[in-house]
Amino acid sequence: xxxxxxxxxxxxxxxxxxxxxxxxxxxxxxxxxxxxxxxxxxxxxxxxxxxxxxxxxxxxxxxxxxxxxxxxxxxxxxxxxxxxxxxxxxxxxxxxxxxxxxxxxxxxxxxxxxxxxxxxxxxxxxxxxx
Length: 130
Known about the structure:
Elements: E1 2-6, E2 19-23, E3 26-30, H1 33-47, E4 59-68, H2 84-98, E5 107-117, E6 121-128
Parallel strand pairs: 4-5
Antiparallel strand pairs: 1-6, 2-3, 4-6
Helix pairs in contact: 1-2
GO molecular function: magnesium ion binding
InterPro entries: Endonuclease_RusA-like, RusA-like_sf
Protein name: RusA family crossover junction endodeoxyribonuclease
């Protein structure tokens, strides 16, 4: 089991924010600068906690996204954008890049929550399940 907290302000840009351009009459998809920066931020923070060898088999991923509370009460659920599914996609892509597992398809169980918090960051727990 891996369990840790990344004390960073979670990115609000998501993996769904690809852009498209046309080159020689064909569409070409690319990541805008904000998405590249978010990917680099997450990958850099995750690299420190990666396992020595990729986890095997079915996995459960628990993530609690803690966004800066501002005027909101600490610990209350965040019911505004970004969507949890889009946040998770970027996170799992970065975790795959870092070598947490061979393929994010191994994540068979997923619990994801978003909160307003006085201490922003991302709580992550990954465990092998049978």
